[in-house]
Specification:
With 343 residues, this protein is α+β, with helices and mostly antiparallel strands. The protein is built from nine helices and twelve strands. This is CRISPR-associated endonuclease Cas1.
């Protein structure tokens, strides 16, 4: 288990949650793995199917401690709450700010700042780790351009302008994306982003990774009581998890892009893992998706030090921490939403 921001994360999938006095007790095969006082918790997030005792759920409901249940892979199942007090207030604040484009821009610019900052440091790490395999001057040139865009994003208060800066940064970053493919270059290449449908093997993998990341982020937002469908930069569209798309921006490059590149460069996938449809779309085979999903779950278990909390957590918990930080900002507990800044 891991306690972060007054939230208890139970990441073992076969742990049963029970109540003993004013404490939550974690049990596995009737053996106690841990216990923690409930009086300073705001929420509990459990990854797995084992469940919780009715006594614990009742205790938490009376004291406005939410319990969220997810699958071990992070798919949102349900959230148990008591009387809708803080949750309603939080969502009403979210809806009000979403309707105000200037207020939305002030929040959205931090998502985009995080995205561009992280992409810049992906390029910087490439120059440090592979100076003899890439064009270092070209990478440095684009990194410097991203730095100049960051300065504009930081003071931007208009959504259209913010989208323009984000678009410029994406074009620059994509110009050297193909150079970060170091193996199997005849079969894996990137010229430009193609979504519907993906036109090459790399775009097929990127689309799948972004879908998984959006699902993880949407589950994190629902877990903390936010509406994943009401965003700030991505505006309302029926069926679109707009806030999840907002929040995942800062993780696209540093998690999804790097993950796809690692699968290619480590030769965990090859050209036989893809096939072409009549309309030109490139899709992953069933075997490829199994390889992808297995590696994705393993990646989520890797540990990092969170840049804002300065605590070690797994990559899989990053969307949940960012969702909690966003909720705290919307409640007024934080003056500004702190994006995930990787270096």
């Amino acid at each position: 288990m891991k306690k972060l921001l007054n939230t208890l994360f139970v990441t073992q999938s076969d742990v049963y949650l029970s109540l003993d006095g004013d404490n939550i007790v974690l049990l596995k095969d009737q053996e106690q793995l841990g216990r923690l006082p409930l009086h300073n918790l705001e929420s509990i997030v459990s990854f797995g199917y084992t469940g919780a005792s009715p006594a614990l759920m009742g205790y938490c409901a009376e004291r406005n401690i939410s319990i969220a249940f997810l699958t071990k892979n992070g798919r949102f199942l349900a959230r148990v709450i008591g009387q809708s007090r803080g949750n309603v207030t939080l969502r009403k604040k979210q809806y009000r700010l979403s309707d105000d484009e200037q207020a939305s821009a002030r929040i959205a610019r931090n998502f985009i700042f995080g995205k561009i900052y992280n992409n810049k440091w992906i390029l910087e790490r490439m120059t440090r780790n592979y100076p003899f395999r890439i064009d270092v001057d070209r990478f440095k040139e684009i990194s410097n351009h991203l730095t100049s865009i960051l300065q504009e994003v930081r003071k931007c208060e208009d959504l259209d302008s913010l989208r323009g800066w984000e678009g410029q940064a994406a074009i620059s970053y994509n110009r050297v994306f193909n150079s970060m493919i170091l193996q199997q270059k005849d079969d894996f290449y990137f010229h430009q982003r193609s979504r519907r449908p993906p036109k090459d093997n790399v775009n097929a993998m990127l689309s799948f990774a972004y879908t998984l990341l959006a699902n993880d982020t949407a589950a994190a937002l629902e877990t903390v009581g936010l509406d994943a469908y009401v965003g700030f930069m991505h505006r309302d569209r029926p069926g679109r998890v707009s806030l999840a798309l907002d929040l995942m921006e800062e993780l696209r490059g540093v998690f999804a892009d790097k993950f796809v590149l690692s699968l290619i460069n480590r030769k965990e996938v090859n050209k036989d893992n893809f096939y072409k449809k009549e309309n030109g779309a490139i899709l992953m085979t069933d075997d490829a998706r199994k390889i992808f999903l297995k590696s994705w779950q393993l990646k989520k278990q890797d540990k990092i030090t969170h840049p804002f909390l300065s605590e070690k957590i797994t990559w899989g918990l990053v969307p949940y921490v960012q969702a909690l930080l966003l909720a705290r900002h919307l409640r007024g507990d934080l003056d500004e939403y702190p994006p995930f800044l990787w270096k």
